[in-house]
Amino acid sequence: MNTLFPIFLKADQLHFLIIGGGKVGLEKYNAIRNQSVKAKISVVAFHFIPEFLTRLQSDKNASYTLDFANEKHFTGVDIVISALANKDCTAYMRSVAKNRGLLFNAADQPEFCDFYLGSIVRKGDLKFAISTNGKSPTMAKRWREILDELVPDNSQQTLENLEKIRSQLTSDFEEKIKVLNELTANFVVPKKIENT
Fold first, then answer.
1. Which of 111, 112, 181, 189 has the most CB atoms around its CB within 10 Å?
2. What burial class does residue 45 get, using C-beta atoms within 10 Å of its C-beta: 0-12 exposed, 13-18 middle, 19+ buried?
3. CA distance linking residue 118 with residue 9, whole number of Å
4. Beta strands of the chain (E only): which ranges?
5. Number of CB atoms found within 10 A of residue 149's CB
6. Distance, C-alpha 17 to centroid of its chain
7. What does each of the 196 residues of the chain score in pLDDT, given as a tens digit?
């Protein structure tokens, strides 16, 4: 049974710790940075690939430490993401995070995860996060590609118009919902998705 509870975190108010300086660490860094340029990111690794190091050196909201990760690196962070292949190291990092009450994610090791990083579709303020409960990131990626193509690029304008209408409604909550439901009832599902 899928027991995941989807939420959207205000990344610009959080401090992320990434453990690992390789391709997977860079991928996790990019996943966070693509959602918020203001999120604070610290990365600790005993080795960094050149591309990752270059990105970090030009990012004013990121810091990096050339070291083996240990408990001191967990101070002041909110969320920890491990990009380590070694399961023993990952298990230890998770225990440190759990002892400090921090949420923990481990790339390609769902048994250690408190949460998963979903595939994301963003059209302005409209955002979809897709998860397969850790079963297949490839399928989540495919759904992201499908939805990215299907969701109109002008979705931001529609959202802004609905926000203006919503702010002008003076009726009670139930009446507001009724009016907004009527306004959005004619959204059309693109033909492509009907055959998917």
1. 112
2. buried
3. 12
4. 15-21, 40-48, 62-66, 79-82, 103-106, 119-123, 126-130
5. 11
6. 14
7. 889 999 999 999 999 999 999 999 999 999 999 999 999 999 999 999 999 999 999 999 999 999 999 999 999 999 999 999 999 999 999 999 999 999 999 999 999 999 999 899 999 999 999 999 888 889 999 999 999 999 888 889 988 988 998 888 888 888 888 888 888 887 765 555 554 4
Could you tell me the pTM of the whole model?
0.86
* 11: helix, strand or coil: helix
Q: Which fold has domain 11-117?
A: Rossmann fold (3.40.50)
Q: Which amino acid is it at 100?
A: R
Structure-token match 């491990």, residue found = 82
- The span from the CA of 165 to the CA of 107, in Å, is 42
Residues of the chain with CATH 3.40.50.720: 11-117
